[in-house]
Prior knowledge:
- The structure is a single chain.
- By secondary structure, the chain is an all-alpha fold.
- Helices cover about 75% and strands about 0% of the residues.
- The chain has one domain.
- The mean pLDDT is about 95.
- Helix 1 runs parallel beside helix 4, helix 3 crosses helix 4 and helix 4 runs antiparallel to helix 7.
Amino acid sequence: MEKIKIELKWAIIFIGMTLLWMVLEKMVGLHSTHIDKHMYLTNLFAIPAILIYVLALKDKKKNYYDGQMTFKQGFLAGLIITIIVTLFAPLTQWIISTVITPEYFPNVIAHSVETGYHNSLEEAEAYFNLKSYMLQATVGTLIMGVVTAAIVAFFVRTKSKG
C-alpha cells in the first residue's frame, strides 16, 4: 500500500474534483436552462483532469523517485490512478445522477428529442440513463486515463542528458 499511497491520494482528489465539476455544471445551468451548451462546455473538464495527472506525476517523481522518474515509472503511476478512478466510476456516476443532478436525464432526454438529436423518446431514454452512463463513465475513464497517463508521463519524465 505504501508503494501506491501517492496514486491513491491523487485518485481520491480526481474523484472529488469530478463531483465538484458536476456541482459546478449544475449550478451554471448546464443540466437545465443551458442544457443546449452542455455537450460543448462539459469538455472543459479535460483541463482540471489533465492538471491533476500532471500534479500527481510530479508528486510521484519528487516524493517517491527523488526527482528521477522514467517514462515507464510515470506511466505506471498514471495507470494506477486510472485503475482506481475507473473502479469507482460507476459509484461516482451514481452519486452524480442520483444525488447531485437527478434532473439531468429527464432534461437531456427532452432536449435531445426536441432538437432531433434522437428520433424518439424511447431512443433518447435508451441512451440517457443511469446504466448507460455508468458504462460510458467506466469505459471512458479507462481509455482517457490511459491516454492522459501516457502523455503526461512523457512530459514529466526525467529527460536524459546528452
